Amino acid sequence: xxxxxxxxxxxxxxxxxxxxxxxxxxxxxxxxxxxxxxxxxxxxxxxxxxxxxxxxxxxxxxxxxxxxxxxxxxxxxxxxxxxxxxxxxxxxxxxxxxxxxxxxxxxxxxxxxxxxxxxxxxxxxxxxxxxxxxxxxxxxxxxxxxxxxxxxxxxxxxxxxxxxxxxxxxxxxxxxxxxxxxxxxxxxxxxxxxxxxxxxxxxxxxxxxxxxxxxxxxxxxxxxxxxxxxxxxxxxxxxxxxxxxxxxxxxxxxxxxxxxxxxxxxxxxxxxxxxxxxxxxxxxxxxxxxxxxxxxxxxxxxxxxxxxxxxxxxxxxxxxxxxxxxxxxxxxxxxxxxxxxxxxxxxxxxxxxxxxxxxxxxxxxxxxxxxxxxxxxxxxxxxxxxxxxxxxxxxxxx
Length: 398
Description:
The chain is mainly α and 398 residues long. The protein is 61% helix and 2% strand.
């Protein structure tokens, strides 16, 4: 066990050496505030290294030497800094296109500020920058680069999960959670994973994200009589199926998501007890307001009914019959785009496009345009998307 009192002389020698290097051999006395900062940085490195070791090893005399521990601790924190920089670059390349000011500002300004201002040599314990985007689980007992590395690892896991869903669908879910989602502090992953677990529990299509009123009632009937441990068990089983479906098999990410699910179970249990699940299992709001125009998507079909319709459309030979079936059964652009993906042929696209209102055409155009703007080559668009761009649609003026 490291004994500060027994090592105070060595610690003071390290402090003096650090101060000389910091001031380029200025031999004036060390200001109290700077001495405290440097000593905190030294002890941060020492304790960081000790925390990384097996407790049995730490008990040996070698690990009660301040000079050795500091040198090894400083190298560890330098490696942590290098790892954090690489992870941050990866996160920036794959960040979610979600318009929430806390999420965007933390990635574009807060974390950038940390890496610009962090000083591993003289202030390793400090955490400069403003990290305002909250994670699904708070980070406790971490500061400095260890905090940032842990934050980035958790953020990477959250982003990786959310990347399995279209950004526009996530934004619709967030809008259902709060219409002012762009300007309030929230955790995107938490809202997404609650709904996805809920859909998996009742056997619905997890890709739809949204949970409607009847599905919310079914979740209440399924979970309301269960004890907290039983709810947690159901949630973990559902989560494991979801992770298997998305081929997320990283042990650290899985462990983090299970911890999140357990934490969320208490919110769900409380919401069940007061019969208020609407802010837990959220119905998406697909309205998109631009100027005076507003588009609100319709209700998606039940999964089994939708699958049956797909099979009937695949068996149907005549586009006129397909149009009748679509007009009678399909009330959601999300369902319609799935149908265009699977059972409408190239020479039939225009007939389907004619069913769309101007607001619906505008919405589809904006979604395709968003994909192109985020880096997808037009040649890599789906066949129906290419056909839509060639259809002669012009963005309406409102």
